[in-house]
Amino acid sequence: MIGKIFTWWNGATIGTLLHSWRTGEQVGTDAQGNAYFRAKKKHADGRERRWVIYEGANDASRVPAEWHGWLHGSGDDVPESYLPPAKIWEVEHMQNTTGTNLAYRPQGALERGGRRARATGDYEAWTPDA
Q: What single-letter DSSP state applies at residue 34?
């Protein structure tokens, strides 16, 4: 609980939670448990403030495409009200694993020992005279 006072990178701080409860209304959640909010009052120019409170680590790649569009004002309705049912070939959203132990590392990557297969002779370097 003490971490909620000082850290912003692992979920919402207490200040953000209080602000969301006081000035916003929750409009939905996604499959990962992220909660989406809109301000109860619009700005003077008619724009609406929208935000997300992540379930777990704050990582923007954890926001599914439909909610990303809603957050940036692509539509007025929340995605749950107009999305078609998922197709059987669609996979669940997966967070960006770049920089983590789950990231793809091909043969020869430094993290896998940095040993690459030697050149096989099928490569010919370009020279300006050729």
A: -
- DSSP letter string, 67-130: HHHHHTTS-SS-GGGTPPPPPTTPPPP----TTSTTS---TT-GGGT---PPP-S------TT-
How would you classify residue 78: left for phi > 0, otherwise alpha for psi between -120 and 50, otherwise beta? beta
The letter for the amino acid at 40 is K
pLDDT digits (tens, 9 = 90+) for 20-49: 667 788 899 888 889 999 888 776 777 788
| CA-based torsion, 69, 71, 74, 79: positive or negative | positive
Tens of pLDDT along 92-114?
777 788 888 888 888 888 888 87
Q: From 65, 34, 36, select the one nearest 49 (Cα to Cα).
A: 36
Residue 56 above 60 pLDDT?
Answer: yes
Which CB contacts under 8 angstroms, 24+ apart, belong to 6-11? 8/58, 9/57, 9/58, 10/56, 10/57, 10/58, 11/53, 11/54, 11/55, 11/56, 11/57, 11/58
